[in-house]
Design a protein that fits this description.
The structure holds 2 protein chains of 2 kinds.
Chain A (H helix, E strand, L loop, with lengths): L1 E2 L10 E12 L2 E12 L3 E5 L6 H8 L7 E6 L2 E4 L8 H13 E4 L11 H11 L5 H14 L15 H14 L4 E5 L7 H16 L4 E4 L3 H7 L2 E6 L2 E6 L1 H4 L6 H21 L4
Parallel strand pairs in A: 1-3, 4-9, 4-10, 7-8, 8-9
Antiparallel strand pairs in A: 2-3, 2-5, 5-6, 10-11
Helix pairs in contact in A: 3-4, 3-5, 4-5, 5-6
Chain B lengths: L8 H40 L5 H12 L2 H27 L3 H15 L3 H11 L9 H27 L2 H9 L4 H31 L11 H12 L2 H31 L4
Helix pairs in contact in B: 2-9, 2-10, 3-4, 3-6, 3-8, 4-6, 5-6, 6-8, 7-8, 8-10, 9-10
The chains are: A alpha/beta, B mainly alpha.
Chain lengths: 277, 268
Amino acid sequence: MTVEPSEAPHLGEVIVDARGIEKYFGRNHVLKGIDLKVRRRQAVMLIGRSGSGKTTLIRCLNFLEEPTMGSVEIDGLRVEADPLHANTRARREQIRQIRLRTGMLFQEFNLFPHMSVLANCIEAPMRVRGVPEAEAVATAGRLLEKVGLADKRDEYPERLSGGQKQRVAIARAMCMEPKVLMFDEPTSALDPELVGEVLTVMEELAHEGTTMIVVTHEMHFAREAADTVVYMDEGRIIEAGPPEQVLGDPEDERTKTFLHRFLSSFADREHAHDPGT
Amino acid sequence: MIAADAPKPDSILPQVEASRARADALFRLKSAGTWLVVIGLVLVGLWATDNIDTAFIAEWGPFIFGGAGLTILVSVVSIFFATILALIGAMGRLSRNPYLNGVAALYVSLVRGTPLIVQIYFIYLALPQVGIVLPAIPSGIIALSFNYGAYMTEIFRAGIQAVPQGQREAAESLGMPERLVMRRIVLPQALRIVIPAIGNDFVAMLKDSSLVSILAVEELLFRSQLVGRQNFRSLETLLIAAAIYWILTITFSYFQQRLERRMARGDR
């Protein structure tokens, strides 16, 4: 099933175009033909049970996992799945070009522990993009300010809370000026009281028109920040559409069951995480 | 009992702490005293039974001690080259290139499968037969570097593998090419992991460097043997050599522990 984003006027041209993504882990068929289009300024939230393939899907989009079949196009660069020749130099460079167009946020943040917050942010811009130091520092300062951590630039990650780490990771990713930000359950490793600060930043980014694809279990957040909610089950996209439709009035039985179970078991948590907007 | 009569719980806390500190200090004192008593008894016993010649020790001690410089030099230079070899070896062991991988694996297997003393003899005595003649000190350094490099290859490999996969993924996701990921992200973290092990190996190297005495390198053991054999006073000279090795290793272990402690609370 193809996800056709709602034709909201604020959305731009298609920037992510994944076609026919199949992924096997050994004999285990994890993704069964995924088509996904994301437009500029669109915020897409992937929801579904654990094991439904959401995380694998976004990891396939920047080739942290090599898809078994299919192709990914990001900002005009199309790369075909090629698991047989994944390791040639030319292909590694192609994949790197895809990664330069995307920013990735992880459940475990993955800040570089041996570098200060600022150094984390300017490392790739300076060494990969060749941005002059003064400019890289200025950009990093601006983005750290944006995530509310300008005063932490000289701290080391060890001294930060989980929520602060994830916010630094967001700033770090944005320093590379990616065309699309991808979040892999960015709040799942956080203590409940720290989830809100990260979601608030993400919601701000979404409202400002940052293109993003988010794997999340935070339904309230999805409802507030998403342009499109995509429900996945057993490696397929089951349903996609605006949040009020998918979350409020789903067409597919599986989506209904999922939401029903999810909302009843997570009702209290949901409430606690309300970022308060 | 009436609550007002009972001592407040926090007034007793300093006493508890002080008594624990006293007990700890006493324990350390007794433990250190045991060292002194045992060593003292042995030395006094040897002296009292006229088995040890203190005048001889006073005369030749400084000469033997003079070998310590070369012991340290050989060890420091060897651990330096061993570290470089280990770094290259670990890269090879982790390489996807089957030839590099094969060479590195062969190196490690060969070194670990043969005695150090054979390797030392081989470089000094066997290589000249194929036209490679090396002086004693370089031969010793090459043998020790070669040997320790192989053991440290495995340590480095484990250290590199101990850096979480997520670090690599994060760096690659930022568009960093593989080499940059290794140099800027993985290796600095791996180094922190392996530094204690390098320290251990250096202490071991200080002791194993005594093996190069068989090449007539004038380090600690060679000098003590030289003097001891000539005068039939090996008891004294070996005691001196052992004491100096001991002091050297204790000193380096102390600094290593401090380094480790500093790194443990450093910015990780």
